[in-house]
Specification:
disordered N terminus; four-stranded mixed sheet; 27 strands; 29% helix; five-stranded mixed sheet; alpha+beta
């Protein structure tokens, strides 16, 4: 990745938050619900398992000796170890749509104030009590670092009431799902000893880079495991006996072994040198090579591959061109090919900017789903009609515009993201067969995330993510229509001309996007006003295609039950990000008795 100061603040915060949501940080990104509960040797968890001396071992993609423990500094931050060392404020059960306790024991989102209550017995790994002052520090630092909660509050409105209670004064109406989704990626990871001076400097200088440059060699967290030591290949964390979660943890160590790349990770789970793989796309033929005692756990990721168009491009700035491309690409074939014939990818059924394509729940937000264009794949007649209406014609087998310029583009993707490359190969073939010239360009991560997406090189079209991992439609719609990325990465306008909902041939009206999203923030998520606003925004997305969502993914993790027990895949706790780091907290991944 590029240094933090290489990007504008909003760009850096946006990119960093995506990487935190997806877990794609470190030297090598192991890319990636509904797996098979049957695994040889998986025993039932009784809840009274005795404490053991066992060690649970899982991968890390950062060399232990190079690790630094500040998540706001991308360089060598170990995100998976961070998930067991630090506690998130809240955790989200994706399959049931529930928020559950983390560092926060309770919360209440009112009209003017959000009240956040910490666990009573929360303790830092250095023995200090974790109090409301620590939560205030975390939120203040996050606000100075351009966190999305800045849409609702400001530093001066975040104050402690007592030792465990923080009040967040709300400067705009915000519904509970929007607020909680906005804080769900925050961890209590800024203890006074390490961050008081940093906060003071940020208060004095809003342009300070002190946060992104800070690189502590050892962490102080509140999670169930605390830092012990870092060798050349392994990080050792040990059970923290004063953790809020301690009574649920029955193994002594959680080790992280450096593993570089998918092939090495698969070999490690086959050979038993690790007990789990956190999140790694694995095709059915690879899974067939795993021992019988390796169990797959799948969970919704709530994001996936999309095609981001440069809306300043002479061709992609034309709605008809974007729509024609959507009709040419068969998303079902793309999803099948990119998942290697497995079920880890689902085609986006109808592009509306709403997640829920595995079970069709995206349509539940729409009164009349059939009124939205589904952009059926390989519909070359409709694609031809759209291009001809925009002044394009065929010269031989190739489409050209009114000036005779060929309709062509480079499509950029990160080379290490194998399933994105496979998807791109497939839909490039569809476009080429139709007469649109495409050239697949694979890039190193640093170049792709730096020069291409967030730098000066730019792109014609690029692999992107059409959702940022949050489930309530406000977030994905705001991400696509009104975010910094929308306006600066793919240059989407701040207003669009669209016909009325359900009437594509009706008279178009100009819609200013920001006020529409701002209005949705404060609406009762279960009310009819919010439902109608979501449908209007989904209609805008569907009609105008700021991006073309291709597929939605699930995350796959694997746990060996040779020496451990884990709950069945259907248990709601398995849908919390990530099973390998959350389930030990709640006693749903436990060690078998020592032999």
């Amino acid at each position: 990745m590029l240094p933090d100061d290489a990007l504008p603040g909003d760009a850096e915060a946006s990119r960093r938050r995506f990487l935190q949501v997806t877990g794609l940080t470190g030297a090598t990104a192991l890319a990636g619900c509904f797996g098979d509960d049957n695994s040889s040797g998986n025993e039932e968890i009784t809840g009274d398992e005795p404490m053991t001396d066992r060690t649970f071992t899982a991968p890390t993609s950062v060399l232990p000796g190079d690790m630094q423990w500040n998540a706001a500094n991308e360089s060598n931050y170990p995100d998976r170890p961070g998930f067991v060392v630090y506690d998130r404020l809240v955790y989200f059960r994706a399959t049931s749509g529930e928020f559950v306790e983390g560092a926060l024991a309770d919360w209440e989102i009112g009209e003017d104030t959000a009240t956040l209550t910490l666990q009573n017995d929360l303790t830092w790994h250095d023995g200090e009590d974790a109090t409301a002052a620590d939560l205030v520090r975390k939120l203040h630092i996050s606000l100075y670092d351009n966190h999305p909660i800045g849409n609702f509050t400001s530093v001066e409105n975040v104050t402690s009431v007592d030792d465990t209670t923080v009040e967040v004064g709300l400067e705009a109406s915000v519904s509970e799902p929007v607020f909680l989704n906005s804080i769900k990626s925050l961890e209590l990871d800024t203890p006074a000893e390490q961050y008081d001076d940093i906060l003071a400097e940020m208060e004095d200088d809003s342009e300070s880079t002190v946060l992104s440059e800070f690189a502590p060699e050892e962490p102080i967290g509140t999670g169930p495991f605390q830092y012990d030591s870092a060798g050349e290949q392994e990080l050792i964390t040990t059970k923290f006996e004063d953790s809020y979660w301690a009574d649920n943890v029955n193994f002594a160590e959680y080790r992280f072994r450096f593993i570089d790349g998918n092939e090495t990770a698969w070999q490690a789970i086959r050979g038993g040198s690790v007990d789990a793989l956190h999140n790694i796309f694995t095709s059915p033929d690879i899974m067939a090579s795993f021992p019988d005692h390796v169990l797959e756990i799948q969970q919704p990721a709530n994001w996936g591959l999309s095609i981001a168009f440069d809306h300043d491009h002479e061709h992609f700035g034309q709605r008809e061109v974007r729509k024609a491309i959507a009709h040419v690409i068969d998303r079902e074939i793309v999803a099948e090919n990119s998942s290697g014939g497995g079920d880890a990818k689902a085609p986006v059924r109808t592009p509306t900017g709403i997640v829920g394509n595995f079970d069709g729940s995206a349509d539940d937000w729409l009164d009349e789903p059939d009124a939205f264009e589904d952009y059926a794949g390989r519909n070359t007649d409709r694609a031809t009609e759209l291009l001809e209406s925009a002044g394009f014609s065929k010269e031989g087998d190739t489409w050209v515009d009114e000036d005779g310029e060929t309709l062509s583009f480079e499509f950029k993707v990160p080379a290490a993201w194998n399933e994105w490359v496979d998807a791109s190969i497939t839909f490039n073939e569809h476009l080429q067969d139709f007469g649109i010239e495409t050239n697949l360009v694979t890039r190193d991560d640093s170049v792709y995330f730096g020069q291409d997406l967030y730098g000066d090189a730019g792109f014609d079209a690029a692999g992107f993510w059409w959702s940022d991992g949050w489930t309530y439609p406000y977030h994905s719609l705001d991400w696509n229509l009104n975010s910094w990325d929308a306006q600066n990465v793919y240059n989407y306008p701040t207003s669009v001309d669209v016909p009325p909902v359900g009437d594509p041939d009706g008279e178009a009206e100009t819609v200013e996007l920001a006020p529409e999203l701002e209005a949705l923030v404060g609406m009762d998520a279960d009310g009819d006003d919010a439902r109608q606003k979501i449908q209007k925004l989904a209609w805008i997305f569907n009609y105008d295609l700021p991006q073309l969502p291709i597929q939605e993914k699930i995350d796959q993790c694997f746990v060996s039950v040779e020496n451990f027990k884990v709950v069945e895949n259907s248990h709601p706790a398995t849908s919390v990000q990530y099973p390998t780091t959350y389930l030990p907290r709640v006693g749903k991944l436990v060690a078998k008795a020592d032999e």
